[in-house]
Structures are given as C-alpha cells and as structure tokens.
Amino acid sequence: QDEPKTPAPTNKKGADELSRSKEKGESSQSSKSSIGDYSTSTSISEDSYGSFSANGSRPHMSKDVRWEAMKRLAIQQGSLGLKNFKLLKQLGCGDIGTVYLAELVGSDCMFALKVMDIEYLISRKKMLRAQTEREILQMLDHPFLPTLYSYFTTDNLSCLVMEYCPGGDLHVLRQKQPTRCFSEAAARFYVAEVLLALEYLHMLGVIYRDLKPENILVREDGHIMLSDFDLSLRCSVNPMLVRCSSVGRDEPPRPSGPCAESCIDPLCIQPSWANSSCFTPRLVSSTPSRTRRAEPVKKPSLPQLVVEPTDARSNSFVGTHEYLAPEIIRGDGHGSSVDWWTLGIFLYELLYGKTPFRGPGNDETLTNVVSQGLKFPDSPAVSYQARDLIRGLLVKEPELRLGSRKGAAEIKRHPFFQGLNWALIRWTAPPETPKSVDASTLTAAVARKKKEGKCLEFRMNGDDIEFELF
Q1: How many helices (H) and strands (E) does the chain have?
Q2: pLDDT tens track for 67-97
Q3: What CATH class has 170-241+306-427?
Q4: In b/e form, how buried is each residue of 407-420, taking b as 16+ CB within 10 angstroms?
Q5: Which residue from 99, 137, 201, 247 could staple onto 148, CB 3.0 to 4.6 Å apart?
Q6: In the chain, what percentage of residues exceed pLDDT 70?
C-alpha cells in the first residue's frame, strides 16, 4: 500500500497547522539530489523553542558545549530566531532547503542552519517532506546521526538548527584520494559506521532511502554523519526474537594466541575482556583437574533480537538514479531492503570510484539497474570478501538480498567485517582527520548539490536578515 498523500494548504495558516501536526507515513515523489530551496524576508516569530528542552538531554551529546550555549540563550531570551545567528556562508542547496554555516551570536559555536521557505514548499507540495525530516531528526540520538539542537519558524521560513560537520562529504573526500578511490580499509571503516547508523534508523522504524556519498558528512574527528532525511519513510517496526541453532555458528572463527589474550585494540577480533563473562557461572568440580579430560564447551542456543521494518511497503519513486533499487524502478513496492541495496552501491563506489550501473543518461541507468548483471573492474584490486559482500547486497530480488531477513545483524557477520569490534568502532582512529575546508571546496560542493529547484540567498539589511530566491 502506498503512503498517504496530504494536500498542500493554500495559505500560511494552513502551513502552520501542517508544520505542527504529527503525520506518519510521509512520502515524496521526486528523484532527489540534495538539500533545498526557499525565499522571502523574515521577521522573528515567538514560535521557536518548543522542542529545545525535550532534545537537550541526549546521552551521547550530554557534554557538548553547543547544548550549554543554547541553554544559556534559552534562559536569557526564552526563544530562538534568526536574530540569534550570524550567517557566514552557504554550505549546500538542495531540494527542500538551503543550509548555511551559522554562528550563535555571543558564542564561538558553529551550527548548520537549514532554512526552508514555507510558501515555496507548499507550492511544490513538499511541506510533508520537510515535516518528515524534522520529526525524524527529533527522534535521533546516535553518534553517526545528526543532532537537532532546535527548530523555529518565522512568518515565511522554517529553520532547523543542526550539527555542523566541517569535513565536507565523502564524495569530496573520495575525489581527493590519489586514485579517486578509498583503500579497502578506509572503505570498511566508512561502510561499518553507515551500517550502524542504518541499523539504528531501522530500529526506530525509519527507512533512509537516500544513501550516497554526498549525504555522508565527515565530522571534525573524521567519523561520519548521515544527513538529509526528507526522503525517508517512517513505518512501524515489530521486534522479534529469532532462535538461532547456535550463537557461534554464524560467527567467523576467532584466532587464538597472545593477541586474543591481551589486546585492547578496537580492531582486534576478540579483546581481553571478551574472554570471560560475568554472566557465565564457574563450574566447580570435586574431581581433580589432572584426572579429567577437557571437553568442548557447547554454546547454548540463544534467540537473537531482530528489530527490522521488514513489513514496510511504499510505492513512491524516490532516490538518486544510480542508487535506486530495482524494486523501486519496477514499481513493485519496496521496504527496508532498499537501504541494503544502496549500501552495496555505496561500497562499490568507495572502492572503484564509480557506481556499477551508470549509463549515458538516466533512462539507460535505470534500465541497467533492472536488467544488467553486476561486473567488477579489473583495477583497482579488491578482495574477494569485499566483492562477495557487494554481490550479496546487490541481489535484484529484495527478498533474497543480504539483510532482508535479519537486517544489519546479517550484514555485520559477513567476513568483510571480520576483525572489526563493533562496540568500539566509535573510538577507532578514522582513516583521516579532515583539515579545514577551503572556500573553493565549499563552492564546488554547493554547485554540485544545486541540481534542481532554487536556493535562498541572504543579505543583511541593517540588523535584519533578508532572503531571496534565485
């Protein structure tokens, strides 16, 4: 069943009502490039700080100085608006909004301020997409997903105050590599962090649907952050306990030796603390150990928790052509498996510097996705494990695709990730830590992201900020 479509209101009052309502199952019908378009001059509205207090206690961001700055401002002024930000430069322009680098006045804190023109969204029937993104951002609390610090509306604009990533995106970072490709170790790092982010989204009942290097931002510390959720699908999710024949059967063999006894490297297969468990009772026997023959320890059969929106279905045609899953193109209806298809395309592009089914034009690309077999270039050399993972993710039948049954839990067991300690990946050293992004890089990124629609250009008029569509 396709997602419900909500007619756009015809006036600003209708827009305000829509922006305050809690809708579910939102959809969009366009093939997307990136962030957005909006306009008009603005005056500050008092409708601003409704979500701040609820969002100010996220565990993984609890010591963030930006939260403290926002709290101080809330105490001092009680509301937030454009007057509280100094807009420094445009970071991106996409389908529903324009993103600026903005400094919170009176602090040294930088934010990504996404500005959306309400009348433009209504006229293009994209208001529901903007609301979908805001509602999803309000749900998130994860190291590899964005933090929404606050949101507010003015007479004409809707604004999201989000985390700023100074390292650009993975598309720009890949093109800076000597071969325009990432090494396999670097690709594994980025794909693993994206996989954990997608796993978290699926647990919340969110299907991302727009994975691509341009939407993977690089934080100051070199770790990643997914961005742009206006094409995402919200759906229900039913946690299930799936009984496995053995916990250890699906796991890759673990080596023995000194490393397994004492290593605390996050990339080690089995750190020292994993050798024993405080939940495992010690078996004490009265028989002398020298007279007993060691018997193999049998692992109990334990159920596995699977939280995956496997029953979700949508008929919307959304995404980027080179990343679209076959079921979307065929109009068969799609679910969470589309995210695993895009993960396969994503890994392929990181390793080879191009996507596997790209044709001379969009129509040829779509035809190739549906009918062309997967081929790997001879160069660069890529391991069998990486190619095998890509094959599993790029199965054209969604029900047979890797991840379709147990979600990310299936994919994390693949030999490509052998040796990766998932619990400590957040503290693993990234392949590289980005330097400050220069103006030319930002200009190129903005030009690349402006593929459709219009952008909001701002200018100062005394103490006021005015926006104009161009």
Answers
A1: 14, 13
A2: 888 888 878 887 888 999 999 999 988 889 9
A3: mainly alpha
A4: bbbbbbebebbeeb
A5: 137
A6: 66
Residue 195 has pLDDT above 80, yes or no: yes
| Residue listed under structure tokens 């298809």 | 341
In the structure, what pLDDT confidence band is assigned to residue 280 with cuts at 50, 70 and 90? very low
With beta carbons less than 8 A apart as the criterion, state whether 320 and 212 touch.
yes
Phi then psi dihedrals of residue 112, to 5 deg: -95, 115
Buried b (16+ CB within 10 A) or exposed e, 125-143: ebbbbbbbbbbbbebbebb
What topology is assigned to 12-166+436-469 in CATH?
Phosphorylase Kinase; domain 1 (3.30.200)
Q: What is the largest CA-CA distance in the chain?
A: 90
Residue 446 tokens, joined: 């903005």
**Do 36 and 95 contact (CB within 8 A), yes or no?**
yes
How sure is the predictor about 247, in pLDDT bands with cuts at 50, 70 and 90?
A: very low
* Domain layout of the chain by residue ranges: 12-166+436-469, 170-241+306-427
Residue type, 461: N
The Cα–Cα gap between 418 and 269 comes to 7
Q: φ and ψ at 225, to 5 degrees?
A: -145, 125
Q: Which residues are part of the catalytic machinery? A: 210
Q: What are phi and psi of 108, to 5 degrees?
A: -100, 20
Rounded Cα–Cα distance for residues 121 and 61 (Å): 31
